[in-house]
Write a structure and sequence with these properties.
The protein is α+β, with helices and mostly antiparallel strands. It contains three helices and six strands, in the order ββααββββα. InterPro entries: Beta-lactam-related, Beta-lactam/transpept-like.
Length: 144
Amino acid sequence: MGDSRFGWPAPRPGRDTAPRDRAGRRRATAHDIDGRPLGALRYPELAAAGLATSARDLGRFLLAVLRDPSGMERPQPATDGHYGLGLEIRRLRDDDVLLWHEGVNRGWHARLLLLPRHRLGIAILTNGDGGGAVADAVERLVVR
């Protein structure tokens, strides 16, 4: 995964401060619920909002989990059986399992859905405050 990191590059004085990838290309811009660009938002606490990644790298992550989901779908201690290694676990009918994770920040909404038994992984990435509705609609289509 060559285009993922925790943290954001330092702003460049006198230039636009939108996030950029390692090659210097602009990343997507966050938008509010009315579609207005929010500009570069910085979050000093890197535990939340700290991962900057590309759709390609996220797809590579999904493929890696689908190759061997055993650690991710194994409930971890003190989680009431609902959390694996970084992914939440939802038991579905017919003993099926949905692994998922969500990231939400102002102007951004991302959700990962994995159905290991079906070898299906979906990354839903939006750059708007209304992205939760999009993610919900996709999830309803996939998880029945």
